[in-house]
């Protein structure tokens, strides 16, 4: 290996390595601040190509990467021979220096384990959290401690191992009487020498083997003993063994078989947004799910899913060691570079001491299980964000950070966000969502159907929607235009009845947010000025880099990636996008249904409504017979025949996924 250092100064352009001085070989690099602290570690297939990318146009860098290179004062690198060496060195440096700009996955909660203290003379089965200890065998992790206690309670009937604390054990030994578990048969009571250390260790070994997945053989052994006891007319022992088998089966039901081949595998999935990534892992041993665990991390750059998976696996197995690496590791995506994926497989095999099958499942039970883990990751990310949003202190800090970043006179207690949804300029709709004190107010949400002839692009549509909204604010009408605006949620419990409060459009927001960059925010500013509300601030939130744009400015406001204010703005923007997409899909569905039923003799609006109420969708109506259609009140046999004939010969309607553009038959 060879090493090179570059002198340290504060400006990225001045500590940039001289042209041609960076080797083209693979290696690992690290950025340090003026005090010599390592703030970022990375690896590269070609050091020259990777490091040069940090010193190009700074405006094009990911905000967190930009913060890193402007914080650093020095960069150094180490050349290695292979990508496996690069992975090893990268992980060891991250572990040694704990750089602030590297992704570090942290547990999203404290997960309990079922632990067996094999390092004690009389091993104990117990629920345990925190750091793992040498000589203790761990099973799990489990989602809830009560699930462990429930399972352990079933198993103690069959494997009566010690489960009491050291204090209880010593006291029972002193007084010569076992605790309650010893009296009811859920402990073999080694404290009073009912069994000696070797006999108790044998019971513990059976419990560990059962938890390891060797369940079938043990159950069959008990069944043979039960039949033998019955044949010997020892019905009391046979009944006890029967009850033991039932207890084991109840414990096994909690971990149903998910992989029929009985394999050992870790199934990893992730969910991410521009700010954070959540990872979930299911531990499958012997084909059964034996544990589950989750992590959440701040994203440090625009890494792909494959790169995020690689970083996670390095941290997970690097910390846990070879015993934690199973025969198979199933992931949603591999690093895009085949050499990097191969190096990762090789490193995992080296940690385990045997071959590791690292792959993306394509079909069958394993793909279905991966989808289940992905759903858990999505829920974990959503829950993590909602917890942040529900905390009063966090919400107050978020509003204060927005006030400071945008130089507002006061925190924006009411934030309104607007988004536009369309497909190739058709069925253009807008959404308005409202957050008060950092919480969503679904009763205040409104939908807009964009009617203007020039509203076929987001900029024009934003201008029309904002003009209509703030015209309503100025007029403060007694009644809303039902055709324009509707809410999609029930009112919050703390809201007053509709008759006891002004209409939603009578409230002026403290901040207006539009989904988009400078063109959208400029259009919003023009609309608001024309409506006479020039004193209300407006910003745009661009998706790509989460930049905050102000009207008529050349550069965006960059809020820290870990800012609670940015989290709140992102959540508001995402909610407006969701609401707009939902409204757009409803509009398209309605228009396609109307077009399919147009022109049918004898079918007016009332009968059309009755048909859709009866069948629920155009697809079900198309599959109905003449008699089934005629059975709808108000629809006679002649009209029913006309409906069936029209739907049989007419064009088949389609539905469009507005997020992907995919077209499918309804």
How would you explain this protein's 3D organization?
Interacts with UvrB in an incision complex. This is UvrABC system protein C. The UvrABC repair system catalyzes the recognition and processing of DNA lesions. UvrC both incises the 5' and 3' sides of the lesion. The N-terminal half is responsible for the 3' incision and the C-terminal half is responsible for the 5' incision. 43% of the residues lie in helices and 18% in strands. It is of the alpha+beta class. It has 5 domains: 101 residues, GIY-YIG endonuclease (3-Layer(aba) Sandwich), CATH 3.40.1440.10; 141 residues, no CATH class; 107 residues, Nucleotidyltransferase, domain 5; 183 residues, UvrC, RNAse H endonuclease domain (Nucleotidyltransferase, domain 5, 2-Layer Sandwich), CATH 3.30.420.340; 68 residues, DNA polymerase, domain 1. The strands form 5 sheets. Strands 14, 15, 16, 17, 18, 19 and 20 form a 7-stranded mixed beta sheet that branches. Strand 12, helix 12 and strand 13 form a beta-alpha-beta unit. Helix 14 packs across helix 17. The relative contact order is 0.06. The N terminus and C terminus are likely disordered.
Query: According to CATH, what is the class of the largest domain?
Result: Alpha Beta
Let me know the number of strands: 22
Low-pLDDT segments: 1-10, 477-502, 651-666
Report the principal-axis shape.
globular
The number of domains is 5
Helix content: 40-55%
Tell me, rounded to a whole number, the average pLDDT: 77
Distance between the termini: 62 Å
User: What class would the helix/strand composition place it in?
Assistant: alpha+beta
CATH topology-level name of the largest domain: Nucleotidyltransferase, domain 5
Q: Biggest sheet, open or closed, and with what strands and sense?
A: 7 strands, mixed
